[in-house]
Design goal:
24% helix, alpha+beta, 262 residues, binds 2-oxoglutaric acid, 4-stranded antiparallel sheet, Jelly Rolls, 7-stranded antiparallel sheet, 7 helices
Length: 262
Amino acid sequence: MNFTKEHLETYHRDGYVVVRNFFSKEEVELLYKIAVDDDVISKKSYDRTDASGLKTKLALWYSLDDSIYSKFASSERTVGAVEQILEGRAAHYHSKLMQKEPKKGGAWEWHQDYGYWYKNNGFLFPDMLSVLTALTPATKENGCLQMIRGSHKMGRVEHGFSGEQIGADMEKVNEALKILPLDYLEMDAGDTAFFHCNVLHASAANLSENPRWSIITAYNLASNKPYKDVHVCSYTPIDAFKGNLLTEDATHISADADFLVK
Ligand SMILES: O=C(O)CCC(=O)C(=O)O
């Protein structure tokens, strides 16, 4: 499914939009199969502990390379959509493989991505977004993403620590929840959510029998060069991948990729 004018309008109105079947079942099955067998990903993954002590696992890296993950992140389809949203050339800030394991995958506390990126990484403008593709079905039971619809229009909210995670000021979150709708983003594998860096979002723990895996790529408007972050990719326009995700070589990620080390 292509990213349409209606998707763009919904994104600007609600702070997010879910595009169903953005990647085909075959494409997403290929990516998931590679990801679950990827020794490098499993070695480079680390835990994030939530406020109740449960852990959620992820691997995060910065630069694009010739791996299958980068082909998805730089695919013409995705970059085209992101550039419509940002109204300019897009840069790849980072990608992360989220592994919320059955029975024990921890929660993500309420936050705005720009809460981290402004405070810690020195991006002056909120010309940034995340794109999440579900690799397995995401349901309320396995801790799907939750969004406060329209909360991106509140602007940036103060953030402090919540467990090992940085969380938004809960007074503001609770007030927002009184006046704005709370949406649960139940998604099938291949569905893709585009969300504004100031939309308040969270997810509950995964206490179900089913894994919830997804890949999230963060994009920046290439002209929004951060004054703190050192990753050149975060302000280098992406050279879009125009090939076929199913027929090109599906290469694993290299151990030399610039992973975030915790
Ligand atoms: O996918 C999730 O469960 C939450 C991820 C998230 O909030 C984030 O990466 O900023």
